[in-house]
Structure formats: C-alpha cells, structure tokens
UniProtKB/TrEMBL annotation:
This is Uncharacterized protein. Keywords: Membrane, Transmembrane, Transmembrane helix. It comes from Candidatus Thermokryptus mobilis. It comes from the Bacteria. The chain crosses the membrane at residues 49-71.
Amino acid sequence: MRIANFILLIALIVFLGVGSAFGQCAMCKSNVTSSEEGMKLASGLNDGIVYLLFVPYLIFAGFALSIYVSVKRKKNWLNLN
C-alpha cells in the first residue's frame, strides 16, 4: 500500500507541474507564432515539450519500482530462511 501512495504522490506532483510545461521559451514561441502556419504548429510543439518532459520521469519510476521490488523480494527471502 505504501508504494501505491508513493506512486500517487509522484504522479500528482508531475501532473501539477505539467501546466507550467506548456509555457514555451520566448524565442521558440515568437518563431513559431510569427506565421499563420506556425500557429497551427504551436499546439504540436507544446505537446512535444510535455512528451519530452514526461519520458524521463517514466524511466526513473521504472528503475525505482524495479529496485523496490528487488529489495522487497530479497528481504522476504531472507525472512523465510
């Protein structure tokens, strides 16, 4: 149950931070929105930024979960002997 609460807390922190990820740097935004075609691409650029931000968190969560499970199994195995 602790791991579920921990994952929920991390997910909440990440999702609360996503709103600020939609803000692009000033140079990128001015270059993209300077043309009519660029206005259409701005939405895709925002999605790409969020995607690039989210992937490292998923990788880290996977490593952390695998280490946690490994330690927990080892601890249970030692208690059985």
